[in-house]
Design a protein that fits this description.
The protein is mainly beta. Helix content is about 0%, strand content about 55%.
Length: about 70
């Protein structure tokens, strides 16, 4: 069963909600370099993505991946 995951971007920060406890969230640059990785301790994770030069991030949550424009 799919669950709704919401990814929002604001001023270089990503806010990811709809997560399960202890779910790993990894943020990658468009060239595949790991930017950050964390475990969710609530249904929401905030990640700093200001170091992404081209403004695009790949978000990996469990087995799912999402491409996001970071503004």
């Amino acid at each position: 069963e799919k669950r709704p995951v919401i990814i929002a971007s604001d001023k270089g920060f990503l806010r990811i909600s709809g997560l399960s406890d202890n779910e790993r969230v990894s943020v990658y640059s468009i060239d595949g370099k790991l930017v950050s990785s964390t475990l969710a301790h609530s249904s929401i994770v905030t990640s700093d993505a200001t170091m992404l030069k081209d403004g695009i991030a790949i978000i990996r949550i469990g087995e799912e991946s999402f491409k996001v424009f970071v503004k």
